[in-house]
Design goal:
Blueprint (H helix, E strand, L loop, with lengths): L3 H16 L3 H13 L1 H23 L3 H6 L1 H32 L7 H13 L2 H10 L11 H33 L4 H24 L3
Helix pairs in contact: 1-8, 2-3, 2-8, 2-9, 3-6, 3-7, 3-8, 5-9
């Protein structure tokens, strides 16, 4: 098992990384501002579930395939970019609908949860990041490397949920203040659409 001091250092580093502007926390922020705090929380749970997949990929060496295969990396990142563009189109259309009808688009919990999973799993850079980051805190002298990767992955997920939940609460609160204003809702939705487009472009242009 990993030493507690090492786990504390890893948890602190994970908190800092989760706070750093990136695709996932920007995604949570935009979704929370658009459709409320609960939406951001369910997206956060989806993202955390996706991180489980990346942890498994690193533990079993699957991430190495993405690093070795240019084709696999390219296919996965373009699937992710296409999904983000789809979400951007939904947000853009919601801006017009909200402005006309004065109501806010509602998504089911399952839909929001799936959004988080897809968003995270279709970003191959997360697996590559995990492959580079987790081994720095693992040591063969402390037992099975696979178990250590799962332990580190679990700590990283806890840190992510903690930070993203706070982001959901703050961004959702800001969105709620403008919920009764069709113009403000239109601006929020159009801004979210722009964020999704930016994330899609960044992912599509990313390299291993």
């Amino acid at each position: 098992m990993i030493d507690n001091n090492v786990l504390l250092a890893f948890f602190t580093t994970s908190l800092i990384l989760a706070l750093s502007p990136g695709p996932d926390n920007l995604f949570v922020m935009a979704q929370s501002a658009r459709t409320g705090r609960k939406s951001g929380l369910f997206v956060t749970l989806g993202l955390a579930t996706g991180l489980i997949g990346h942890t498994v990929a690193v533990a079993f060496g699957l991430a190495a395939i993405l690093r070795a295969s240019s084709l696999a990396f390219t296919i996965l990142k373009f699937i992710g970019a296409a999904y983000l563009l789809y979400l951007a189109w939904q947000a853009f259309r919601a801006g017009a609908a909200t402005a006309n009808k004065g109501d806010v688009e509602v998504f089911s919990r399952g839909s929001l949860y799936r959004r988080g999973i897809i968003m995270n799993l279709t970003n191959p850079k997360v697996s590559l990041f995990f492959m580079a980051f987790l081994p720095q805190f693992a040591d063969p002298r402390h037992g099975s490397m696979m178990l250590q990767f799962f332990q580190l992955g679990a700590v990283f997920i806890m840190a992510t949920i903690l930070v993203f939940s706070v982001i959901s609460f703050i961004a959702g609160g800001v969105g709620e203040k403008f919920s009764n204003s069709p113009l403000a809702q239109k601006i929020v939705n159009r801004t979210a659409s722009a964020v999704f487009i930016g994330l899609a472009v960044k992912l599509a242009l990313s390299e291993r």
